[in-house]
Amino acid sequence: MKVIDHISQAQGRTLFSFEILPPMKGTSIDGLFDSIERLMAFGPKFIDVTSHREEFIYKKHPNGLLQKVHTRKRPGTVGICAAIQNKFHVDTVPHIICGGFSAEETEYALIDLHYLGIDNVLVLRGDALKSEGTFTAELGGHAHAIDLLKQVKNLNQGKYLHDEVQNSNPSHFCIGVAGYPEKHYEAPSLKSDLKYLKEKVDAGAEYIVTQIFYDNASYFSFVEKCRAMGIEVPIIPGLKPITTKNQLHTLPRNFYLNVPDDLVDAVEAAKTPEEVKAVGVEWCISQSQELMKKGAPVLHYYTMGKPDETEKIAAALF
């Protein structure tokens, strides 16, 4: 079922969903299944599965020459989505990214997803390689999420990359995109960021999932500004509890967000790792309760592969 249909059928009730990371290569999927199993008791309507691009290393040979070797740290998103849907009978939302993929490779992935009965995708540009300062599109790939979105939209209309390919059975993906309550770090202003978001919605995006935030005022203001610009699709808040003191520094650096002073003070005052996690869970529960009260369509939790805190939060809410 499509994400927007889940929201519509809920008739104003706030739904629960979460995001998982594919396990590192070489590990069993059993650990991932165990994590998901613990959260199934709270009735998630869909589970997002992140996608990761290939990276590369330089291998030095005895003759001194360097060889560029492509590496992938995690198994493919398509197969993991299929495995989750088969085992848990819950909808999955694979992340489809520009980085590291040509348009043709993306089309192959979308064909596989459609064949497997997966109804939703979240389209993202993706991050730059760690070795690069700025994002660079793959040869024959997309430089912007809106171009990837348009490719998915074309496939929904039975339009493939090559004109000679004909298909009377087009795909039917529900397309989600990312939103940034505190603006994307590359955008010169929130207003300009919202302009590009509006273009994605006009091009066919059916819902928005936000980046992490810790001040609900940022989300409410973001929604208000979106509505003022004519963006009427559901806007799903993305949440993640702080679990370590170090995240007070890494989260703002990696996600370009602000941590409220009250939360900073409470985390810094915690004397043990367990107390830090308790502070983070309590803050996230409070955030979630207010968001539910104000009618957020879904509460979407970024588990980062660790379900413990999300399980505690969901148990208090759902």
Give an overview in words.
With 318 residues, the chain is α/β, with parallel strands linked by helices. It has one domain (3-240): TIM Barrel, CATH 3.20.20. It contains 11 helices and 10 strands. The chain has helices at residues 3-10, 30-40, 77-88, 103-115, 145-156, 190-203, 216-228, 247-255, 261-269, 273-293, 308-317; strands at 15-20, 46-49, 55-60, 66-71, 91-97, 120-124, 174-179, 207-212, 235-239, 298-302. An 8-stranded parallel beta barrel has the order 1-2-5-6-7-8-9-10, surrounded by 5 helices. Helix 9 runs antiparallel to helix 10 (273-293) and helix 10 (273-293) packs parallel to helix 11 (308-317). It is globular.
How far apart lie the N and C ends? Answer: 21 Å
Strand content: 15-25%
The name CATH uses for the topology is TIM Barrel
Work out the radius of gyration: 20 Å
CATH domain class: Alpha Beta
- In N-to-C order, the SSE pattern is HEHEEEHEHEHEHEHEHHHEH
What's the domain count?
1
Q: Report the helical percentage.
A: 40-55%
How many helices does DSSP assign? 11
CATH architecture assignment name? Alpha-Beta Barrel
Descriptive tags:
318 residues; alpha/beta; TIM Barrel; 8-stranded parallel barrel; two-stranded antiparallel ribbon; 11 helices; 10 strands; 42% helix
State the gist of this model.
With 318 residues, this protein is an alpha/beta fold. It has helices spanning 3-10, 30-40, 77-88, 103-115, 145-156, 190-203, 216-228, 247-255, 261-269, 273-293, 308-317; strands at residues 15-20, 46-49, 55-60, 66-71, 91-97, 120-124, 174-179, 207-212, 235-239, 298-302. Helix 9 (261-269) runs antiparallel to helix 10 (273-293).
